[in-house]
Amino acid sequence: MSSANEIVLFHHQDITPDTFAAPQERRLSGECEQSVELHYSDPSGQFHAGLWSGGVGAWRVKYTECEFCTLLEGHVRLLGDDGSVADIRAGQHFVIPAGFEGVWEVLEPAKKTFAVFEEDRLANKE
């Protein structure tokens, strides 16, 4: 990772991807294989940015963080428990707000950039 004041260029970093699958109890279809290359985390541990890749499959999600994404490759669908549907293809930008609950479905192998912000829950406890 870069120093605190250095601009972070994703393509100039040699990052070993963290590979994993959605937990079995959240899987709805497919192997739910995923990979994350974390390129930046701020000193507070609340903001993170990197690249994510996923294989075909569907799994339940519950977001506690806000996430901004740009889909670079593939086709994904987000199905909210509230009945909302977001059909997202390569080249589209989107935000998943904290509190979103539903299904993340990869219809074609996908790759995205992501920037995640998670509010410091300890600071908000009284």
UniProtKB/TrEMBL annotation:
Record-annotated (S)-ureidoglycine aminohydrolase cupin domain positions: 43-114
Superkingdom of origin organism: Bacteria
Pfam families per the UniProt record, alphabetical: Cupin_3
Protein name: Cupin domain-containing protein
Organism: Vogesella aquatica
